[in-house]
Amino acid sequence: MSRALGLSVRAKLTLSYAGFLMLAGVLLLGVVWAFLLRYVPNHPMIGPGPMIPNRGDLVRAFAPKVSLMLLFLLAFGLLGGWVLAGRMLAPLARITTATRKAAVGSLSHRIDLEGRNDEFRELADSFDAMLARLEAHVAEQQRFAANASHELRTPLAITQTLLDVARNDPDHDTTELVDRLHYVNTRAIDLTEALLLLSRADRRSFTREPVDLSLLAEEATETLLPLAERRGVTIETAGDASPTIGSYALLLQMTTNLVHNAIVHNLPDGGAVWVGTAADASGVLLIVENTGGRLAPELVSTLAEPFQRGTQRTHTGHAGVGLGLAIVRSIAEAHDGTLALAARPEGGLRVTVRLPAVPRT
Ligand SMILES: Nc1ncnc2c1ncn2[C@@H]1O[C@H](COP(=O)(O)OP(=O)(O)O)[C@@H](O)[C@H]1O
Ligand SMILES: [Mg+2]
């Protein structure tokens, strides 16, 4: 963007310092002059007694000195103003340097302004904080892209191997090959769909409508009941109506992911899942709790990160793509809500999603 060249802030400050100094000088002289005038007559006094100077004499005597003094004030104001403004504005130069560096992509630079807390210090500190957040965000995105590429390459590499084997061995059982290719392809589609869903939730571009979490919980449970029965898991649903505002499809996906996790990451047999909803003045809650193996708290805090799959990777038919909880968190945050994970002391997980309540109109 090109802008017309203007006076620098330093020059403006200098001029205003000098200007104020001159104004103060002139005002002071004016007061002194007015004071003198009261005692000096306008015309020469005629009569006996000593000669008293009249106004003309006074002007002639003082005018050169007054102009000299005003000139000195001007020079002093300009010089002092220039030095003072330079000192005041020094932090600004450092902030500008940091902004320029950030603009060309160097996010690791910090201003680190020292000194007392003033407006510049506040600006510099918040700028540093913004840089730190941006740097972390960019690093996270890069990590995510690298992980996603890696995950997407895996099914393609497996497909390639299967095809190579089939080509080198003409008597290969094609039915088995097709089955395995189909399985690998399904996983690739699942992964791609999960990635698309994640970016859709992150973009926050969805229409919002009134949604009742308790109905979502019922619907998700009903859909997943056959899976639960196959795995010998019982599901209990309970809770009050919990109205909120959001995307029905995304919130259903969120609930389904949670109930699905609660079923598949459960005890091998005889596990239990509890799905509950609640509403209070501050918001609505969806709580999904399940039995299962003991989970270390430090592991639990990482589970919602993309592609985190806990420690023991299950090679059963339901090896997920590791995006389930990342999607849940994204959807919750896109609805101005939060996701909280807690290991149950007796084993298993308790997941709590808090969403804003419907504002009463
Ligand atoms: N309800 C749960 N109970 C126990 N562990 C869970 C539960 N939900 C998720 N996890 C753990 O968190 C990991 C990440 O979950 P998720 O993001 O849904 O990925 P995925 O289910 O595809 O592995 C899972 O691999 C599992 O180890
Ligand atoms: Mg999952």
Automatic annotation (TrEMBL):
Residues 147-359 form the Histidine kinase domain. Residues 86-139 form the HAMP domain. Pfam families: HAMP, HATPase_c, HisKA. Its EC number is 2.7.13.3. It catalyses: ATP + protein L-histidine = ADP + protein N-phospho-L-histidine. GO terms for molecular function: phosphorelay sensor kinase activity. It comes from the Bacteria. CDD domains: HAMP, HisKA. The keyword Transferase applies. It is an enzyme of class 2 (transferase). The keyword Metal-binding does not apply. PROSITE patterns: HAMP (PS50885), HIS_KIN (PS50109). It is found in: Cell membrane. InterPro entries: HAMP_dom (IPR003660), HATPase_C_sf (IPR036890), HATPase_dom (IPR003594), His_kinase_dom (IPR005467), HisK_dim/P_dom (IPR003661), HisK_dim/P_sf (IPR036097), Sig_transdc_His_kin-like_C (IPR004358), TCS_sensor_his_kinase (IPR050428). Its main location: membrane. GO terms for cellular component: plasma membrane. Keywords: Kinase, Membrane, Phosphoprotein, Transferase, Transmembrane, Transmembrane helix, Two-component regulatory system. The chain crosses the membrane at residues 20-41, 61-85. SUPFAM superfamilies: ATPase domain of HSP90 chaperone/DNA topoisomerase II/histidine kinase (SSF55874), HAMP domain-like (SSF158472), Homodimeric domain of signal transducing histidine kinase (SSF47384). This is histidine kinase. It comes from Actinocatenispora rupis.
